[in-house]
Amino acid sequence: MAKMSAGKMAKMLRRAQEAQEKVQAEIAAMEVEGTAGGGAVKARVDGNKNLLSLEIAPEVMEDGDAAMLADLVVAAVGQAQRRAEEEAGRKMEALTRMLGLPPGLGF
What we know:
The chain has 3 helices and 3 strands. It is an alpha+beta fold. It has a 3-stranded antiparallel β-sheet. A hairpin with a 4-residue loop joins strand 2 and strand 3 (51-56). It is rod-shaped.
């Protein structure tokens, strides 16, 4: 196993940190949608799973069933958050592979 100089190691670590920061910025900037009720309720979240918007089709409001509406909102937001988490995981896995780290030893 060849020895690595301190300068080379520092440069490699700097590149890894820059790559991680880039991926984290990409994750924060992404937007993901979740739906419920056949698209009657749509939720958009960012890569950090923060709710950005919520759309409710007018016909859902006509029933006056607040419990059903609440369930649809929870389902749509939950789906959007799971999708954001999955996409963020894929991006971080790609970073881990790029850095040559073993699976599960990533960020």
